């Protein structure tokens, strides 16, 4: 079965080809089932290979299957081959498994979309690229998958391309990834320059056995880290991930939570011998980048209103944890967290997709609330995902996060502190999300700020009309009284009209004043329906329609993956329980790929228990504070939702301003330079020729006498010249 | 396959046939009546198909084991007193360029109808094909020069008479610029031949192989003569800052003109650098390599930056050619096997993908009568198949692994990294810029809402799809399995590098340092690299 | 007073310079043609006198060539000039500058 490991990427590739060239007959839902079937086949193939590999002796667990020679150029020979070892097969298992579940989910989510077939074609292509990335037996093949997932991410983010924002987000993702790819390519070059090959087996074995010069290893490790930053959205190349939420939610779940973004960590784990040989500041840099990004992203997630943005920043934060683990030498912990994160983050994203689906596309949590009664399956599974990510034992997230924190403490207490604060924040913002979405009062039917504006505007308009009408009546009464001056009724009518007019003006002024003084509508109406005052009956019709509409639960194709992922989020921790070597199954399994570079915890068991307790306590604090702020209203929630956090520390704005301002100006200047200076030089040659011609043309004036004079002068000159040379 | 193998054993003077057939076709077209454009097109397409078949036969019959030698040699005396002969041959370096020419011409002829003066158009195109193939297989310096110049005249007319907008200006600029460069080259050729005759005391000869193996010029003289050659090639490539003829020529030419110009004609310059620069003047090439490497690097970055700000879609693709050819020059002057092979591969790859790109832009122009990016938008909604094909070609141009653009680019950068580390580090940044300008253009043209005339644009027709299909197949095939191409190129490239090593004192091919000496102390970053 | 060859040469020189000056300063094409004739004949005179002095028959031979050329030139020139004068009355050489650059 291990020889057939090429089937793993072949299934989704076949799926992609059939869906692309299969024609219009493959519509909904056949295309979806076909794609899901391909992923399921891939999963089965992986399971078979896994079983085979597990059956082998511990130190024999590495199998290379070569298909054909790809690039034989000079000293460089790169094959298309697959490396099946514990690390790659583990990755394949959760990529294909979670991927298959997400494919199933998409059948329900993308129901009714005109581009149903294209979506599944892209999803399968993505899966193919991701599996090539993970299974490739050399750096270049990994790079092929690396860029392939980047391209598919671009295609999928800009899937609904008629909206400019989506198109722009896709482009941003690709280009930011490319900056990371620059680093990856340089690492490949240096690897070839040093080792003469880019195959993992040769490079890693040689590095582990001999000693590579520190400078070389540092360069390679650093450049791979640059690539990883781009792909896994760490600071400063994280800007594309929040924007990537513009794509359909299954895309966000699959690509931007479970698989593509974990490629960076996979890469660094794969090349752990090189990191081990690099300078000491390299792992430290990795760890601090991870920790810093984790904290940074967590602070932003606290203030986001879009449910997917919260999850996006949460992903960046959790990826930071994985980098922290890699930097501390805890590769197993990083992989462990990668797996559990895939489970619960995919669950959370799919759950949010279910919510969005039920709310007909609305992603703003200010409009949610109390959904647990209307969407019980979604709510139930979502709660499990929440508990997992918040680090509540015995759910999966607790075990993996705790392990990372333990290694962080082992490395530096400061790192541990940053990790702990992030964990508290994580618990806080996830609880906030759950409360705002599933608990509390149902804010869906509340009028929204623009609707209230409309109501007030219409009230003022009516009052204005009344004033105008009263003024007209007054004018009419005055004219009538001037016509018939003696009649007392007429005089009374004038007085009455004047009074009516003044009353109308007063009323109008009153309404305008009320409108000006009315209190700001709360961003989150947690305490009760907002009081809109006298204009309640002037609200537009859609408010009434909304209160009749009820969000609905999702179909079984969406519900089943949620349940499966929830089960995995509960049980996922079992693969690496820290109690004894026997329970640390993942560590044992991954050992052949680690070349002994896994750092040993020099922390006593007692300290570990204390650390765990502190982490749990921190999580509890985060949860309780969020409950106090959003459910029990004992703390003003607005203290946490600072505008600068909502604006992501203005970093994105800074970059956009630079690109649109000085960046664009610089490019524009270069283009102008080309057309004026460089082309100008060419044109100036032509201009000079023309100027010279104009000068010389003056001798051709068409007058015979001038020509004759020229002949005469020339003849005389010649004679003189000859005479002067002869001697008599 | 057996039939092909059998056919491969049949001896037939394929190279002269490759020259004569298109020229004869041009003559035939001229004598046919003007009023039957379909007949004229049929004859022209048939001729170019015959040429294409012959070039494919050339690949099949090419003997990999004798790859380093010149194959299919044809030698016939022409002006015996001056040592000029009709000497044609093919080796791994020129093989795929000839095939590229053979494939692109039928596609260009089929894709575009000239609209007016069909007879002259087809005659010029076939004459152009003959000239280009002549350049690639000439082994006599005078024959090479003749064909190099012959190429200019049909191209001038193709741009000027069948182009649009400012085509007369563009054609004149192209012609004068290129001719000015090659005028100096003539002096260089004559100097080389006469100085060689003086030094060896033998007769005058223009045989390339003889001149290259003899290396009878003094160092300084060789450098001057090299410069005269290099100037001509630098204009043709085009190398910054001699590139300004390219945007105008590409933009104002008709679609077929742009396809041939970008696909084939630009390669004359880079091929010239390989065959006549590196081979004839190895020491001078090594001496001037830093200059050309820098200019290539500038071209990569500069071309991409300027491309980003273009408002005309065709002009954007034209500037992208400057960037791509910068990579090729970079690889050529890295002076190692990977770099030169990468450059050669990129010549073929660029020809295929840029030709496809120009065809697509031409199709858009035909439908919407505008090339301004501002006026286009949301085309993916109205023409999804066209958009999909454009995406594939665009990703190839960006250098996505799995498609053809990547392998060549990668080899160029690997080679340059081994030779001049910092240049490679900066040049790799060019891949970021490539994504930037192409994706931004794609977004503005294809994404977004479709309004007005954009919403009613018809999708790709079957005929257009069939014309593009061979290019698309090549894009994918050469990305996934480039080995057959590389293994035919490699012996000739190795021989060229060995030739340089022999004739340049103290030069060793910059390769990777590996083996048993990865030990402490093998500090491999910029230890003594020259840049 | 003996008439020597130098007298003839002087006369020829005077005639030549008169013709040259006349060619350069007069505007009427007919007058210019006459001046050219004057110059040509001055040259003839020079040839003949020097031919007689040096006893070389080449002098007289050259005169024949010059006379033939002068005659044919006058024919063509007069024809062109008369044709132009008929079209444009009172045209001077300065007006006939169509061949300017």
Structural write-up:
Chain A is mostly helical. Among the domains of chain A are: 449-548; 650-725, no CATH class. Chain A is 71% helix and 3% strand. A two-stranded antiparallel sheet of chain A has the order 1-2. In chain A, a hairpin with a 2-residue loop joins β1 and β2 (76-84). In chain A, α4 runs antiparallel to α5 (139-157), α14 packs antiparallel against α15 and α15 (331-358) packs across α23 (585-594). The mean pLDDT of chain A is 86. Helices cover 72% and strands 3% of the residues of chain B. Chain B is built from 22 helices and 2 strands. A two-stranded antiparallel ribbon of chain B has the order 1-2. Chain C has helices spanning 5-25, 29-54, 58-87. In chain C, α1 (5-25) packs antiparallel against α2. The longest helix of chain C is centred in the C-terminal third of the chain and has 30 residues, at 58-87. Chain C is elongated and about 50 Å long. The termini of chain C are far apart. At the A-B interface, β1, α5, α6, α8 and α26 of A face α13, α15, α18, α19 and α20 of B.
In short:
Chain B has 531 residues and is mainly alpha-helical. Chain B is built from 22 helices and 2 strands.
Mind sketching the topology for me?
The complex is a heterotrimer of chains A (728), B (531) and C (101).
Chain A: H1 7-21, H2 30-55, E1 63-73, E2 76-84, H3 86-109, H4 116-135, H5 139-157, H6 164-195, H7 200-209, H8 214-231, H9 240-243, H10 249-258, H11 263-270, H12 272-277, H13 281-301, H14 307-327, H15 331-358, H16 376-390, H17 396-411, H18 413-438, H19 449-483, H20 488-517, H21 541-548, H22 556-571, H23 585-594, H24 605-630, H25 643-646, H26 651-697, H27 704-725
Antiparallel strand pairs in A: 1-2
Helix pairs in contact in A: 1-2, 1-4, 2-3, 2-4, 3-4, 3-10, 3-15, 3-22, 4-5, 5-6, 6-8, 8-11, 10-15, 13-14, 13-18, 14-15, 14-17, 14-18, 15-16, 15-17, 15-22, 15-23, 16-18, 16-22, 17-18, 17-24, 18-24, 19-20
Chain B: H1 2-9, H2 14-31, H3 37-61, E1 71-79, E2 84-90, H4 92-111, H5 118-137, H6 141-150, H7 152-162, H8 167-200, H9 208-214, H10 219-236, H11 245-252, H12 255-278, H13 282-308, H14 313-332, H15 337-368, H16 379-382, H17 384-398, H18 404-419, H19 421-428, H20 430-446, H21 462-480, H22 483-503
Antiparallel strand pairs in B: 1-2
Chain C: H1 5-25, H2 29-54, H3 58-87
Helix pairs in contact in C: 1-2, 2-3
